[in-house]
Amino acid sequence: QVQLVESGGGLVQAGESLTLSCAASVNIFTFNVMAWYRQAPGKQRELVAGTTSGGSTNYVDAVKGRFTISRNNAKNTVYLQMNSLKPEDTAVYYCYAESILIVQTLRSWGQGTQVTVSS
What we know:
Layout: E1 4-7, E2 10-13, E3 18-24, E4 33-39, E5 46-52, E6 57-59, E7 67-72, E8 77-82, E9 91-100, E10 105-109, E11 113-118
Parallel strand pairs: 2-11
Antiparallel strand pairs: 1-3, 3-8, 4-5, 4-9, 5-6, 7-8, 9-10, 9-11
């Protein structure tokens, strides 16, 4: 069973930066997609940033130019560098991994890490 462990969350002031890490228990080459989602209180979980095994990335409009997703294959870790944080970035951030197989798609989630941005 795949385990994803997030770290790096915390309380920061608006304008500051944080880097989230997601360590996988398996070689991340096995994943077609790795991504970061977030869920704020009372809101649905939303995709923040994603990266494919081919190296492409995508971001939700609200974080473009401020957040960067990257992966270190040697460490089996995906990162989310978050700059110029805003109070509206406050949420629980979840790591997600997806493996697309012939007969099924395997999806895994981390336990989440809280990010709180004060104004």
